[in-house]
Amino acid sequence: MCFDGDVTDAATSPRPPLGPTALFALGVNGIVGVGIFVAPPTVAAAVPGGAGALLYVAIAIACLPIALAYARLARAMPTDGGPVLYAARAFGSRAAAGVGVLVWVSSLFSTAAVTRALAELFASAAKMPALAPYAAAAIVIALVVVNLRGLKLSAYAWTALTALKLAPLLVVAALGAAFAGSVAQAAPAAPGSLGRALLAILFALQGFEIVPLPAGQVRDPERVVPRATVASLVASGALYAAIHFGCARALPDLASQAEPIPEAARVLGGANLAWAVSAGVAASIGGIVVGMHAMTPRYLSATVRTHAMHIDVGAIVVSAAIVAPLAAIGSLGALVDLASAAVLAQYGATAIALATLSLRRREGLEPRDAWPVLPALGVVAVLLAQAGLRELAIGAAVAIVGAIVASLMRKH
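Above: the chain's sequence. Below: its structure in token form.
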């Protein structure tokens, strides 16, 4: 198995293709996805009424140390690679290879999950549920073609889809704030539901870690990448809080709603707004699918190469070859659980890399730069404790297979 050729963005553009807007859109697109469309009922069951919006703010603040760890490392090392690069500089090539495989496997699960979700959406719209596996394969093939043409085309796609999905959500948030209708008393909190609500919000806020990955393709990366990493988390957390507040004002029975945001849109703005929000759901999933398919091969490329400024054709093809069957036959819930467990390990590895490099005064870092590490590791520990043994065992098995694939690619 031998792979020849690279996909280089420099070949199609005289300067790096990503600016502040595209990179910020990548972060928001990575965060604002399926999670916010399912989290409000879970949160409302724990904290009834508009007060539930404060939970989103609290969890976004709790995630800030993790985002700041990524931001500081990105400023110190403004090249492609993200957590793989940070592990290599902190622990050496062997540890970096392990982190790279872990991150790549996590991204494979996430990419397969969102691809499956989009395929099921298409199949549902066509009233042909059996079409979902074939639609998933078609999506993967189409995005392989896009990715082989370079990152610039994918950047245009995820930026446009981010704008399309945010517009109706912002309208729901604004109308919810201005909603003056009388609403019934919200149902009381369900006992023991707070933990599930926190996990639902944390799942919805994941995605900012993808921003530093293409740093070598960014103009002025020392400033743009750290700002986009933190800004995408802050902006998404604020948007989530506003959306939940709007849903709570419109729907006193929010905890029992299956499709909370479209239903809130119907109450607040009528059938047309509900249709627009439903279209926003499709754009949300579509935007994440484009972004994940663009970024996932870069994790593998960073793992198997000593220089990651170019992305291998082989990384694109191999990643797609694994994602396609996962998306076609995998359970959406299982894929999401596995991806969540793996991404927590990535957060922990990155925080430890920042501590190591800071204490050793390497890459221009000083001991004072390590201050986000302890709070970041605390958040990681709390979340990782929620993962079941089954998810951890399956994740470990897939990581072993991924390590074998990466090793074979490295030899060639």
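The mean pLDDT is 79.
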